Amino acid sequence: MMRSSAVLGIDIGRDIIHAIVVRAHRQGIQVAGHHRVPYRATDDLCVPLTEIKKRLLACVPWYQRLHISVVVGVDEEAVITKQMTAPLIDDEIEQEALIGQKLSAALNMDMDTLYYDFAVMSGVTVQPGQVCYQVVACRRLALTPALDALKRVGLSPTVADINSQALVGVYQALRPVAQANHWPLWLHYHSGLLTAIRLYPDGQVYQHRCRLGEGERYEYRESAANALVQQHFDQACHRAREHNRLLPLSTVWISGAWPATLASEHLTITRFNPVAMLDQTAPNISDDASIALGLALRGEYSCV
Predict the structure, then answer these.
(1) Helix, strand or coil, per DSSP, at residue 159
(2) Cβ neighbours of 16 (radius 10 Å)
(3) How far apart are CA 74 and CA 81, in angstroms?
(4) What are the DSSP calls for 165-217, one per residue?
(5) pLDDT tens for residues 117-175?
(6) What CA–CA distance (Å, rounded) separates 4 from 69?
(7) Model-wide pTM > 0.90
(8) C-alpha to C-alpha distance for 174 and 170, rounded to whole angstroms
(9) What's the CA gap between 37 and 160, in Å, rounded?
(10) Torsion angle of alpha carbons 211, 215, 216, 222, nearest 10°?
């Protein structure tokens, strides 16, 4: 990230919008500010976004406001992921047109109704002259309201990223900071959604998501509900072990609304706040903002 740049990550949740701004600093990336605004789907999105812009742009120097990038998150439920085989074409425009045609045929959808991106997958066996593409598509209707509102308040979105990929970016940024000589499993539980992430030594990423409920406050829940969450925790750890039996699992990082009764007989459970771990000088920011942090971190690549 250049010294003159800053990135604003915006996570538009079901009832809360979290936004974090990170900026280039002489010691690396600095979390310059965070703001959260209550939000309902029936609200005018321009109102909270205007407040976020006013609050967070004031957290960075004037010369970094001139080059700020905006990254908005997309929920996985609005995303379609497919693998498809096609010829490798050097011309980027022809390549994009070809992938669009194949995606349109595979989904039986008009490409004008989709945003899509793709990347060549490595390590996949295909016929000579062919390559395997990982294609990610999103309905325009899922993103257009947020993109239009951002433009109306004077913020130009440069990247739209999947929320789970934002959390992967946080994990990748945290491992060097945590100086972990092992490969912990990170379980993030927020708004009833449990996301499991583990990075492997070869760079591959393990991910799994499941929805538990609406994330009520634990102090008001019965012990049976906590037992159910414990069961999901145990299942998440078991799935991660089974996914790669050659890499021992000894440590689990947890963040979010986990009950105090959470326990494991064979694993070390470490509660942590990703924002505080990444930047110890950051303001007191809840780990609920982890996705917004990841979006901001993912956006740093677009600022170079």
Answers:
(1) strand
(2) 16
(3) 13
(4) HHHHHHHHHHHHHHT-SS--EEEEEETTEEEEEEE-TTS-EEEEEEE--S---
(5) 888 887 777 888 888 888 888 888 888 999 999 999 999 888 888 898 899 999 988 88
(6) 11
(7) no
(8) 6
(9) 20
(10) 50
Q: Mention every residue, 6+ apart, whose C-beta is less than 8 A from residue 179.
A: none
Q: Which of 112, 149, 108, 117 is nearest to 135 (CA)?
A: 117
User: Residue 201 corresponds to which tokens in the numbers above?
Assistant: 């030594």
Residue matched to tokens 């959260």: 36
Strand partners, 6: 23, 68
What would the pLDDT profile of 220-263 be if each residue is shown by its tens digit? Answer: 556 667 888 899 999 999 999 999 888 999 999 999 888 888 99
Q: Report the residue count for the chain.
A: 304
Angle between helices 46-57 and 140-152 (to 10 degrees): 50
Rounded distance between C-alpha atoms, residue 185 and residue 198, angstroms? 5
* Distances in whole angstroms, Cα of residue 3 to Cα of each of 21, 78, 130, 170, 277: 14, 35, 41, 21, 22
CA 247, 250, 255, 256 torsion-angle sign: positive
Q: Which helix (H) or strand (E) holds 74?
A: strand 68-74
The residue type at 195: T
Q: Residue 38 is which amino acid?
A: P
List 271's β-bridge partners, or say none: 254
The strand pairing partners of 37, in sequence order, are 17
Position 302 scores a pLDDT of: 37
